[in-house]
Amino acid sequence: MHNIEIAAEKIKEGLYRLDARGYMCPYPQIFTIKALEKIEKGSVLEVLIDNPLSCENVPAVARRNGHEVISIERIGEGEYRISIRKR
Amino acid sequence: MGYEELFREFSKRVEDYRSLGVNPFSLATGCAVKVDLLTVLYPAIRSIRGDLEKLGMRIAPRRDADIFQGSIEGFRLFREIYRSEDDVNIERLKEISPSRAIVLAQVHQRVADNPESLARVIRGIYTRVAQAAPGIIIGKGHSIVTADSKAQFMAFDYIRINNENYDRLVVGNNDTIQIIDPAEDPGSPRQTAVALGNSLNDLYTLGAWRNTTIIPVIDSPSRELTRRIEDNMRRYAESIGAKLVEAPQPRTGALLMGATVFAETDRKPPFFYDEVSPGMEILVTRPIGELASINVYMMCMLDREIAEELRRQFGIDVEKLLDIKSSIIDRMSRPNIDVARAIEKRLPQIDEDFDPSRHVAATTDVTGPGIYVIKELAELTRSSIRIDRIPLISPELSEFATRNYIIPNATSGTNGAVVMIASPRVIDEIEGELRDRGEEPIRIGRVVTKGEARVMVPSIVRKYISAKAYLKEFDLYEA
Asked: Is A55 marked active-site?
């Protein structure tokens, strides 16, 4: 809806990636929820973050919205990949 | 003004920031920018403290301010900016011959992810400083995160005491914010006022306000913005009768504003932790939770559905939210000097003993940890404290912010209220005095027993804090 949010990129069928690195909490949470709204049910959204607070809050807000948090992986120093299946 | 008009203004503001090369969504609002104290900073400091002590450096226990005997005229300050240990000029440091330092460390958020990576970044610089200035005391440290990997630096404000003055104390502090309200011009006087008020608040909390000296910390992406922030600081200093002293600046191009500040006092600071006793009361000088409204506003601007949800759940539309946010920022931009004066009057002279019927026993200010600062007071005073109410500016916005994971602790503030512990008689006096000056003091609880550090909080606090690290520190009870 707005040009100020960041959008998820389609990697392949059923898999999307949202790169929220460089953003401070709470913005990765809202960008994640907005991205989940736009993808198909059953698809997976990978969210890349490097904000320590969001590592707790992105999975929490995804679960609260009824989605499945598949994994939280550390992919580098202070960098995380959170995989969420849209329900 | 309806949503569309507010959104247009907001979008324009975002573009203004972007034209400066700043992404407003990479900035933390207020004190939310600190390295996590409990899980990252304290363990990192613990891991390097032993080695540094062997070199003669002493890192003071975590405190809100540095305190030393002397006077404002009796010491000189030298600021050195380091990006890495190679920048530490040992000869220069020997020339300065500092006895203490106040340190600001800005690290990339990936470094602030865990204690090990933070320790790796700061160990080298601290070690070189310890080697060049044996016996130096790090009186106060302030550690913040940035989303910009190129904006890492450490600023050491070295203090050389030329003349010790035994009937006075100097209280020093440093604090910074990146921004308080990303929906407002970064060079507005209100942003600067909140930043400086926040630095001064730790002095005011200790009743220190005389001969205030401000040494600015300013970083910005443009010379024009830097100049505006400097002008704002000059005017702010004049308005409170403070002296402004120039010093080297980090010049990384990221947005940062704040100051190292000093003031004098001829009173003992309110560190009478052993004197805290059952029956003493807890007073908050005004309601708390300033950061909830700012962050909820940002979220509403990013997503209209959030704004709709807020209206449905709590009857707060964006115009009302804007009014609440605006009045909160106005309050945050006013210095808490009346509180400082009220505390100073109720502290013993340097050569006088504490008297519970006349003096304030302990104080702290409400910053990023919000209501959790009461737990810190309980630990310092080894007391069990029962909190009867959580005095929020807007319980609705704090609840909404928590429910939607907008901020993990919706009781947080910046340049926030001051909390104090004193006998009911002293609390009566302060409450009356502050009310006469237009403040909104609230009695929120009392000391129940001594010995064990516990804080009993109404379970409704779960509506206002989602961060488990904080919640587990409280004993929750059903009110």
From this structure: no
